[in-house]
Amino acid sequence: MTAYHRLPATLLSGLAASTGGRGASRALAEAQLSKHLLLIANLLRRWSGPAADRDRIVHALEAARAAASAEAARVLGSPLVGAWVAIVSRAVAQGRAERDDVAHLGAVAAVTCAAARVDTEMTVPVRDGAVALPGVGRLAVGEARHARVTSAGGTLTVDAGRGPVTVTGAADDGWQPVRTLVAGSGTVRAKLALDDVDPYRHGYHAPPAPRLSAAEFAHWQELFTEAWHLLTERVPYRAAEIAAGLRALVPLQGDGRSARSATIRHVFGVFGLTRPATAADFAVTLVHEYQHAKLSALLDLVQLSDPADERRYFAPWRTDARPLAGLLQGVYAFAGVADTWRALRGVPGVTDAAEQEFANARLQVAQSLATLEGSGALTPVGARFAAHLRHFTDALLAEPVPTAVARRAEQRQRQLHERWRAANAT
Q1: Residue 79 belongs to a domain
Q2: Are residues 227 and 102 part of one domain?
Q3: Does residue 260 share a domain with residue 150?
Q4: How many CB atoms within 10 Å of residue 52?
Q5: pLDDT by residue (tens digit) across 254-311?
Q6: The whole model's pTM is what?
Q7: What radius of gyration do the chain's Cα atoms show?
Q8: For residues 314-332, average pLDDT
Q9: What InterPro entries is this protein classified in (predicted)?
């Protein structure tokens, strides 16, 4: 019998009210693990390489899951494994997959076995002169086409014809580990990979940044520590769900003009961003993009809007006309943004900016949510979702703000609508 993931009504209503908590984050992550496993199984069924390699991978994954299911699940459910399997599955379906991309599954299997302390040996491809081990790091090996990756007693070694190299946690000759941002303590401790080496970390509206210098990484860590303190002090319920579901960040190349961030629809637990200017901006970006991630993962489980609806709508955060699903994404993300700016109004040095950003964001959410509610294109579940979100939004609107701040928000909204109408005039 096939088992389907179903969110309990309480978790669904919690997510609809813009938060959801640790339980919802864990439930969404479990569903994503199942999706990854289904996609990996499909790749194995359509495997075009040597049958012995396929059989070795199947045996290794089964042994790892049997020996240490939680440790194996953490690797197989990781976001950059999800990014790889989504990219490759689309390529396979379109008949344009490259063999080395599919063969990356050998590296996934080796890392999974190491996490589960299962011994195995895999043949993996060399890309751009390096072997990539998902979630672990990248080793420069030169011009070899393939390498052997061995898991023994939980330790990984790589041999590309020049003798085995043991993978360690510290940077070494040719070895670039995935570094980790850490902040907080106890139940609100955050631990996020800052992955600047994985070959499948692309797909955002800006290219991924190359390897960060030690000084640049230290700057990220400093900002993250400050941002996490703001979240745990001001919006601890958001810090808790982010800690439970977000696992990695991908630094992006900036354009020199403004900060950028984005979440990929089919990949949960990671998003890309340029380094934020301030800790407050970092805190809001964490909430903003995790809102997108939660909703995208939820849409793998339930249908909230009618996919046949082809109309386009005004979204006050963009000048292009948006489909209903895109409008829903924006409403949900900016509900979290408004809530976070509301909480940051009392932070010294941030108060005035937070007050205006709160007023702007809540007005954007309220007007766009009204568009959703009046569209007639929400499913029954989507209508219930919108009703919970309306209750949350009304609470935001009930917060008093200075009259001048409210007027500036209203004027800004009118100007945005005028620009949108001009850009979309027929």
Answers
A1: yes
A2: no
A3: no
A4: 9
A5: 887 888 999 999 999 999 999 999 999 999 999 999 999 999 999 999 999 999 999 9
A6: 0.95
A7: 23
A8: 92
A9: AKG_HExxH
Q: Which residues contact 340 (CB under 8 A, 6 or more apart)?
A: 231, 234, 235, 238, 283, 284, 287, 288
Q: Read off the amino acid at residue 263.
A: T
Structure tokens, 121? 């040996």
**Closest to 241 measured CA to CA, from 289, 200, 273:** 289
**Do residue 298 and residue 417 come from a single domain?**
yes
Domain boundary among 146, 177, 208: 177
Closest CA to 167 of 205, 102, 217, 115: 115
Picking from 365, 360, 329, 366, the residue whose alpha carbon sits closest to that of residue 345 is: 360
d(CA 123, CA 335): 47
Residue ranges of alpha helices (H) inside 256-379 are 279-299, 324-343, 351-374
- Return the structure tokens found at 28: 């969404």
Separation CA 323–CA 312 (nearest Å): 5
Gap between the terminal Cα atoms of the chain = 53
Q: Is residue 3 included in any domain, yes or no? A: no
Structure tokens at 181: 């941002």
Q: Cα(202)–Cα(210) distance, rounded to whole angstroms?
A: 11
Give the Cα separation of 323 and 249 in Å (integer): 27
| 261 and 339 in a common domain | yes
Tokens of 425: 């005039």
Q: Is 136 exposed, middle or buried (0-12, 13-18, 19+ CB in 10 A)?
A: buried
Q: Where are the alpha helices (DSSP H) in 46-153?
A: 51-67, 69-76, 79-93, 99-103, 105-116
Q: Provide the domain limits for residue 149.
A: 27-177
Helical (H) or strand (E) element with 97: none
The pLDDT tens digits for 369-385 are: 999 999 999 999 999 99
Check if the beta carbon of residue 64 is closer than 8 Å to that of residue 37: no
DSSP conformation letters of 68-85: -HHHHHHHHTSHHHHHHH
